[in-house]
Amino acid sequence: MDMKKSNNPMDKLPSLKSIKVFEVAARQLSFSRAADELCVSQSAVSHQIRSLENHLGKQLFIRANNSVFLSSYGEILAKGVKESFDILRTATNEVVEVSDITIKVVAQTSVALDWLAPRLPKFKLQNPEVDVILTTVTSSEHYEPSEFHVSIGNWSTPPDFNSTRIRKENWFPVVASKTSKKINIENAQSILEAPLFSYRNGNDWEVWMKHHNLKPKTKLNIQHFNDPLLATKAALSGEGVALSNMFMAENAIKENKLTHNPFLSNRPPWGDYYIHYLSGSYYINLFTNWVLSCCAELD
């Protein structure tokens, strides 16, 4: 009886053992260092490489003067093997995570308190297997990035993290709705005559005035806070004006506690928020994409 040649692509795959040896040798570009890493003899490494080359019918390494280099075929295989191992490593991590999925998140206070924290229960309902531990800080100096999987704030990208800008953030003046007649935020000059709540030693208002080509007629009455959320909360008192954004002011605006003027907004150089996240985890990507989708819903 004639035997038909199998078309099963698995029949053409070399042994995983030889592939692993090849991956290490290609990365090290040394059979002796590969042997040390694999805890085998150099001759065992050479044997696996020859076996792989015979199986494929291609020379994978160029041997010269006690050195080895990848051939063009070796470079093709090394690229594919690395990508495959990365996929396998990610899948393995996901399987391990399933039994105990915890995402540690640190977020700037201005984003966390009134915006992110109230939304986290919804994420938990949608993803009951994931626990999110939220920590708040006022600036990047107050946390260690390596202790978290995700960070959200207007600070720069931590080492080994990927970053995505959440959106282009507009900052606008807000006053308590109950005193919006006393402090007319429709008129820029009227704003400058009121007490100004600053979160950046007055620089936030300086940048705002420069953007709108404004000069105060009298000395500014500035009260200082170390966080924009605190300045926004102070505006609720009805005694002054703060520069805020939708992360901090959205709820109060919808509840008619704050009145804002989006037509007198600006985008300070420090004003955009970013989400920084470690790559390689399905659940970290899930949380990151959820945050971005929630941000897209902001007015």
Write the layout of secondary structure elements.
Elements: H1 16-28, H2 31-38, H3 42-56, E1 61-64, E2 67-70, H4 72-98, E3 101-108, H5 109-126, E4 130-137, E5 150-153, E6 162-167, E7 172-176, H6 188-192, E8 196-198, H7 203-211, E9 222-224, H8 228-235, E10 241-244, H9 246-254, E11 258-260, E12 273-277, H10 282-296
Parallel strand pairs: 3-4, 3-5, 8-9, 8-10
Antiparallel strand pairs: 1-2, 5-12, 6-12, 7-10, 7-11
Helix pairs in contact: 1-2, 1-3, 1-4, 2-3, 5-9
Write up what this structure looks like:
With 299 residues, this protein is α/β, with parallel strands linked by helices. It folds into three domains: 13-96, Winged helix-like DNA-binding domain superfamily/Winged helix DNA-binding domain (Arc Repressor Mutant, subunit A); 100-168 and 272-296, D-Maltodextrin-Binding Protein, domain 2 (3-Layer(aba) Sandwich); 172-264, D-Maltodextrin-Binding Protein, domain 2. It has helices at residues 16-28, 31-38, 42-56, 72-98, 109-126, 188-192, 203-211, 228-235, 246-254, 282-296; strands at 61-64, 67-70, 101-108, 130-137, 150-153, 162-167, 172-176, 196-198, 222-224, 241-244, 258-260, 273-277. The protein has a five-stranded mixed beta sheet with strand order 4-3-5-12-6, with helices on one face. It has a five-stranded mixed beta sheet with strand order 9-8-10-7-11, with helices on both faces. Strand 8, helix 7 (203-211) and strand 9 (222-224) form a beta-alpha-beta unit. The longest helix has 27 residues, at 72-98. It is elongated and about 85 Å long.
